[in-house]
Amino acid sequence: MFVLELTYTAPVERVDALLDAHVEWLDAQYAAGVFLTSGRKNPRDGGVILAAGVDRAEIERIAAADPFSAEGVCAYRITEFHATRTVDGIAAYRERPPS
Known about the structure:
alpha+beta
């Protein structure tokens, strides 16, 4: 599982200009079953996405395809972790930690 933290590197007006394209990109990843949840940070200086079901190389490719990333208005920090405990609604994503 991955936590993708976006931090804006450009004024929010530039971010807003790309928002529709970013939402289309999000929708495609939800449809593909990769993204589990996403939203803006508070204060609004970026966002957070929780993703699963792909490997590190694929999540990096997906993040690079985000219009925010491609147009240089955000930087990504990607953290991989093993979801060993979850609420029942996402129990299918539980993992065993590596040995």
